[in-house]
């Protein structure tokens, strides 16, 4: 049964210490929803956004994660959970039946799709099977097959936020870094115009795609970006979404190379850190995501956007204070009583 699309919800957002979760929290509160802001770091900046309910939670790989999250959902009357960071997605996907029984909404693709997106080596294989151009990769045991002089990227297979990412042009350096990077893989480095596609895929498989150039990137975050329109890029992104059976909110990244080739590098099963540009360009990305989250139809006409809109980011000091005040947040790290 459809519910009121304008109803205020209580939505738990994880990873509010990073740009995606922080921005999502701010956007949801502006829409009138109450956000239970969750993060493993008691200094997470999302805790300081007005109107949030801050909750320190265990790391996603902690054995207590599921029980703490279930208790938060029960005791704080949570209507839905949205992951703002990749680490939280696998354990939340495992909790899906439990959350559904408790009446808590979670909108993720099937477990095979989640794995294909989170594990970059699997993602490469899926795209290759569908004839979609993507950079070549080599696992550590195959470094000897890397061509001489190739420019390389060493990164974790399941990493996020540009952590543990290194650029080299020698196999010897790649071999050393594979000893240091967790769950490493070696990827061919490509050059060109880097882009992100903000995507929302409804339950019938129809996708809306908002394209942004990543004009200036620092530490994995596009600090300057501009919306653009390119039918060939949009069509390829839609092929990627179909190949991995994407559903809900996600973002695709890639490069438009000098020869016109479009190469896809990754897909994140979460909202992108730079999504505020999509909204500034006219796309009701978060509002329509909430509709889909609660089983309401998506209005794809409200996901149209204007090209040529730019956004710049900068680092700001959000707050300073006495560390002793953090006891308030630390007290809830084991979940509500």
Walk me through this protein's architecture:
There is one protein chain. By secondary structure, this protein is an alpha+beta fold. The protein contains ten helices and 14 strands. The strands form three sheets. Strands 13-12-9-10-11-14 form a six-stranded antiparallel beta sheet. Strands 3-2-1-4 form a four-stranded parallel beta sheet, with helices on one face. Strand 12 (248-256) and strand 13 form a beta hairpin. Helix 2 (65-75) crosses helix 3 and helix 4 (111-118) packs across helix 5. Residues 330-337 have low confidence and may be disordered.
Number of helices: 10
CATH T-level topology of the largest domain = D-amino Acid Aminotransferase, Chain A, domain 1
Largest sheet composition? 6 strands, antiparallel
Q: Would you list the SSEs in sequence order as H and E?
A: EHEEHEHHHEEEHEEEEHEEHHEH
* Percentage beta strand: 15-25%
CATH class of the largest domain: Alpha Beta
In CATH, what is the homologous superfamily of the largest domain? ATP-grasp fold, B domain
Query: How many runs of DSSP E, i.e. beta strands?
Result: 14
User: What is the rounded Rg?
Assistant: 20 Å
Short description:
The protein is an alpha+beta fold and 337 residues long. It contains ten helices and 14 strands. It is 28% helix and 24% strand.
Can you give keywords for this protein?
337 residues; D-amino Acid Aminotransferase, Chain A, domain 1; Rossmann fold; Dna Ligase, domain 1; disordered C terminus; alpha+beta; 24% strand
């Amino acid at each position: 049964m459809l519910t009121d699309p304008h109803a205020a919800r209580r939505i738990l957002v994880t990873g509010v210490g990073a740009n995606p979760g922080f921005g999502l929290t701010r956007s949801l509160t502006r829409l009138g929803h109450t956000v239970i802001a969750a993060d493993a770091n008691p200094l997470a900046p999302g805790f300081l956004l007005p109107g949030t309910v801050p909750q320190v939670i265990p790391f996603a790989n902690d054995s207590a994660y599921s029980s703490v999250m279930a208790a938060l959902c029960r005791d704080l009357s949570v209507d839905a959970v949205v992951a703002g960071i990749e680490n939280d997605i696998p354990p939340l996907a495992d909790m899906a039946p439990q959350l559904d029984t408790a009446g808590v909404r979670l909108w993720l693709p099937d477990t095979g799709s989640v794995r294909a997106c989170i594990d970059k080596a699997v993602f490469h294989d899926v795209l290759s099977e569908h004839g979609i151009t993507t950079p070549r990769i080599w696992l550590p045991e195959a470094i000897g097959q890397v061509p001489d002089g190739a420019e390389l990227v060493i990164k974790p297979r399941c990493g996020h936020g540009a952590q543990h990412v290194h650029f080299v042009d020698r196999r010897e350096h790649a071999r050393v870094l594979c000893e240091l990077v967790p769950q490493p893989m070696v990827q061919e480095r490509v050059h060109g115009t880097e882009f992100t596609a903000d995507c929302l895929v409804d339950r019938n498989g129809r996708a809306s795609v908002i394209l942004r150039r990543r004009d200036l990137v620092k530490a994995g975050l596009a600090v300057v970006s501009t919306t653009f329109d390119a039918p060939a890029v949009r069509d390829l992104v839609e092929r990627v979404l179909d190949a991995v059976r994407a559903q809900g909110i996600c973002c695709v990244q890639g490069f438009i190379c000098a020869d016109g080739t479009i190469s896809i590098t990754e897909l994140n099963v979460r909202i992108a850190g730079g999504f505020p540009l999509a909204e500034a360009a006219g796309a009701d990305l978060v509002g329509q995501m909430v509709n889909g989250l609660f089983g309401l139809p998506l209005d794809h006409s409200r996901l149209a956007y204007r090209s040529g809109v730019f956004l710049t980011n900068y680092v700001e000091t959000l707050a300073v204070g006495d560390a002793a005040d953090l006891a308030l947040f630390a007290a809830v790290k084991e979940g509500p009583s």
